[in-house]
Amino acid sequence: xxxxxxxxxxxxxxxxxxxxxxxxxxxxxxxxxxxxxxxxxxxxxxxxxxxxxxxxxxxxxxxxxxxxxxxxxxxxxxxxxxxxxxxxxxxxxxxxxxxxxxxxxxxxxxxxxxxxxxxxxxxxxxxxxxxxxxxxxxxxxxxxxxxxxxxxxxxxxxxxxxxxxxxxxxxxxxxxxxxxxxxxxxxxxxxxxxxxxxxxxxxxxxxxxxxxxxxxxxxxxxxxxxxxxxxxxxxxxxxxxxxxxxxxxxxxxxxxxxxxxxxxxxxxxxxxxxxxxxxxxxxxxxxxxxxxxxxxxxxxxxxxxxxxxxxxxxxxxxxxxxxxxxxxxxxxxxxxxxxxxxxxxxxxxxxxxxxxxxxxxxxxx
Length: 365
Ligand code: IPM
Ligand code: MG
Prior knowledge:
By secondary structure, the protein is an alpha/beta fold.
């Protein structure tokens, strides 16, 4: 069995606690299914800052580049509120995305049947929801230059962030979205603000061209991003795949995730281009909730492993079984604190992880 190299970056806050559950599943799969995962651990975020004065060290970046997949926990917390901007915990995650060229961020918003009543929306609006947000991750206003605050000398300052997109960046993310749509319900909705932003004009034009030239058999719809946000809350089941830029994708994926009643449980995959020789993609698996400590839960641990098996290692059966195990445990009424609701049984991270592993073992027997 070829080895499968994983770099674990637990980070801060609930990250380390969640990573224990990741390791638990992986160890069991190695011992009983001969899965051949080789894990090593690094530091990111505040943990890396405390140890090295940076949000991720060059050594850990080298290891991330060499790994088949990186599993990321969470970064940030009040302790690091005053560190220099370039060393803030989030900078570690942004460097991973940028240096590994992880241009495509896949953020599924799936409503587990057992959680349909935990959504802030009506049961019938979210029941059976299964949408996928494909967020561009290495361009746009997150990375555009100039990005600075200048002193105007008259008691005023000026802050500039720059939204930049080149044709090739829009082409590759839209191809990713169309390809994924073909494996699902065959529909892509592209969101931008072409009524206000020239980057939106180009975005719209490039997606339209890629569609006409390469994917005419997929249904394509364009929506202004603000209207898209409204439609997501009004009737989310109209969507299949949504493709959008880095900033809109950040916001719309939080909205979409919350519809499912389980933002803290949703995984996301950040993928690079396939290697021309091996076909393998660099990959990082992270919770959708990013660093937000108020909504972050430890429930994303198992879903992240499932997503990693699916997209990095083609272990589709295992991924299906792990996802089924998660759904079953939820149906049994077990809930971690972040998704707790009335009448359910609240358990800690360890107990939840154990319950999922036990179901997974049953399904793998
Ligand atoms: C996310 C997060 C990150 C982002 C933060 C932590 C930098 O919100 O992954 O959605 O803005 O991309
Ligand atoms: Mg976010």
